[in-house]
Description:
The protein is of the alpha/beta class. Helix content is about 40%, strand content about 10%. The chain folds into two domains: about 105-415; about 425-475, no CATH class. The chain has helices at about 15-25, 25-55, 55-70, 75-95, 105-115, 130-145, 165-175, 195-205, 225-240, 245-250, 260-270, 295-300, 305-310, 320-325, 330-335, 365-375, 410-415, 425-435, 470-475, and strands spanning about 120-125, 150-160, 180-190, 215-220, 275, 290-295, 345-350, 380, 390, 400-405, 440, 460-465. Keywords: Membrane, Transmembrane, Transmembrane helix.
Amino acid sequence: MVVASLPQRRSWPLSSRTTYTYIRRNGAAIVLISLLIVQLVWIEFAIAPVLTKTHGSNGSKILDSMQRSKKVAIGAQSNSNNNNHRNNKERAKDNPRNMNGNNNNNNNNASNNKKMKISIFYNLYIGNATDIPRIQQLMSEQLSMRDPLIHTPIYITTIGTTIDNDTLDSFVYGNKAKKNDVVRLGHYQKGNELLSLESLWGYCSKDENRQDAVVYLHSKGSHSNTMENTQLRLFLTAGALSQDCANGLLPLATTGESNVRQQQLRQQRQRCNVCSTRFSPIPHPHTSGNMWAARCDYVAQLYQPSKFQQRMRRFHPTGSTPACIGRQRWAAEHWVHTHPAVEPCDLYSSKDFLFNYEHLPNLTSVGDVRRVLYGEGSNINNNEHGNGNGNAESSSPVMKLQEAPRFDLESFSSTGICKDTGVSTLDMRLKEARVLYDFTADGTDAAEAGGTGGKHPERIYKIMPKTWWGWKFFDK
Length: 476
């Protein structure tokens, strides 16, 4: 490579003959430098204002690209673009598509979501070494539903049998491991989901991550390999990793719209800070199977997971069981929906499945997820906003983002589970809000507000938000 050198500095003034000789000897360098200065001035003062005025945010992207081209060799830039195009084709061929129920507007949001960081926190349990091949297939199938441009990195906590890092990488990508996408948080001989939830909560509690979103998944069925666990695992993973949940959690500030347009979008869009395939408000607020996506600014308000199970011991209504309250091993499933600021949304529009395992859709593979939840004839969309996995345009009403709970109290009570225990009431929800987060209906200690009924008359509580889902749900 030839590098143009600058002329040596001379003392001034020079005679006209000396100046002529100087220019003649160094003319090539002077011409090159002059052209470079002209180009920089042209970009800065002529092109930038035009792009910004006529193309808005797209113009800024074009300008950024032009400015980057000043630092990157043209040949290298071309090779990079070719590699990106080839990688997109490989992703489309090798990875099952991300599960969606999108319309064209959501596809536009999908390109914005690439700016949004959605980390996955995965709780992996392996009982013994003989289970490794089965659990490897189980986990790889789950993560094949993610969009690698959005859902990254993957933070993994392992429990039970120890596996090395290479084996863990193969769980995520098979034989095509990308180690920079996998972060191993730690290994424990014994434990439960609260270990991974503690890491997720710690991540969201950091100021720099408050505008992020997270997905929580686990290897459901790794301990008990039943058909019901397989169905529930696929059912929940499809929602947690869906483009619909990602769009629902996307902060309006990242969409690049004007303030007026953002206000319009805020009125049109669903209120959502926790998204899952199904949110169930009874017998306690939860997602059966415990897989979901959530905004970090909400998660940071939750009770610390490692202390949550102990705290729930203070809430023990007479005649109830731990499963009906969300205590003991059911605490992890209850945790994410406990704060009064929760704005749940879900996707599954059918009343067939409400909670637990009753009437789950018949899912045994990712192919079944495509066929049953998103319609077998879904159009695969690989437009310029696509992620290479093939996002599906909406062709089935089965999976549709909506504020939750989407059905009334009578519908959810039809299962008969935890019936007559007294936990599926407004009174119980208000009392739990006081025990966990110091909220009552009106900020007082009155019994009808969820307080202790006068045991602490001097105490001032926080007031339950007017937007809390329970006001409407328990209205009757």
